[in-house]
User: Fold Deoxyribodipyrimidine photo-lyase from Agrococcus citreus.
Amino acid sequence: GTQIVWFRRDLRVRDQPALAAAAAAGDVLPVFVVDPAFDDAGAARTAAIRTALAGLHAATDGALVVRSGRPEQVIPALVDETGADAVHVSGESTPGGRRRDALVEAALGVPLVATGSPYAVSPGRVRKGDGSPFRVFSPFARAWLEHGWRAPAELPADIRWARGVESEPLPEPPATSAELSWASEEGALERWAAFLDGPIDDYDEHRDRPDLDGTSRLSIALKLGAVHPRTLLADLDRVAPRRGRAAQRSLKRFQTELAWREFYADVLWHHPRSASSDLVQQLRGIAYDEPGELFDAWCEGRTGFPFVDAGMRQLLAEGWMHNRVRMVTASFLCKDLHVWWPYGARHFQAHLADGDVASNSHGWQWTAGTGTDAAPYFRVFNPVLQGQKFDPDGDYVRRWVPELAHIPGAAVHEPWKAAEGYAHGYTPRILDHAAERREALDRLAGVQR
Ligand code: FAD
Assistant:
């Protein structure tokens, strides 16, 4: 009989264990539900989802059925309509996804079959010797490697797509930029092949440099499941023996970054409330300011700190921000503006195409110092020194802050020292970093006393 495959964070056909399981059991009806919960996905993520869906439509030979509505109504209705035997999904690990799946399962008269997950190792699997979860990254990463993962699932040779089920029109994909095209399976695999073919060899050296195109830009594809991380991990192993020593260090480093993604999903699985509150209990008492005008200035890239403003403007323009700049802008909100990190996380989530509750909320907590790692609360990034170090020629700032385009080289990080620094309307600094750093440490001392 018919097997429904309900696609969610797995918008691909290759290395897709739920699809493979369905294809082995019968005719496959591929389904995507436009859930009202997506309403707060933001324009960038919506554009990325539509791009990935167009790819999935082509990859399923036009069989993809799109329906709008709440999944606990849409999916059971489709089962009734088609007489399907089962509904196949990838296992979900976020609090919202688990809640949604429980509702659907309760409303279904047929099994909801979960096969695989969006991770190399399903969240919750990697444990300490005594069965408890990890709270620190490095030992998690070692245990994760030791645990290992399956080889990528084969693409079933002859999938029989179920036909004749009515679909809403596919949501219109936007005009695609190069970056957006990497959100679909085909585009992501192309981008990955090009990155693996050379640029990855310099990853260790270039990954912290927002002025260079030194990272994979696959976070959107990974978020949407246009590519499975296991595919990437298998390719790293395949090419490593033929690369030199420095390149191998880069491959290893890339594997470690994928491990961060897995770690944060694991933490969220064990601590669902860490999506929106501090993991470290003792730090829950820190005094914060309500977001006001300065928060708006941060959101819009008008703080007067060039590296911070460049990042916030890249976020608004591209729906993506370089990792180093995510850390610096997040630190600025928490330590210079004294605003609690969930406000910033919400702004990121609304604008990032790769916005992912596990990576975003724990990336924020890593920066705030209230999260998993040894990363201490008292570490405060200096936004000027960070710019000088990681954007040494100032190219990144000039790309995103046109009011500073006339200042050459690294001088762009300190317009207050440049002749004519403010000639083109750049905002003066909204605060004194040294004073706010002291203020952040005073507030920390307040809860430690
Ligand atoms: P690459 O350097 O090419 O890394 C490859 C992949 O590894 C990434 O695509 C990503 O899946 C994973 N990865 C790399 N670094 C991290 C990390 N620190 N934590 C988790 N996974 C990582 N990443 C998201 O995918 N979604 C988010 O919503 C998100 N929010 C963040 C918020 C803050 C405050 C911070 C500091 C980091 C956040 N990150 C988030 C992590 C990281 O910034 C992005 O994954 C990375 O910039 C994506 O670019 P890339 O694909 O070119 O990365």
Remarks:
- The pocket of flavin-adenine dinucleotide is lined by residues 207, 215-219, 222-223, 257-258, 260-261, 264, 323, 326-327, 330, 348, 352, 354-356, 359-360, 363-364, 367 (CB under 6 Å).
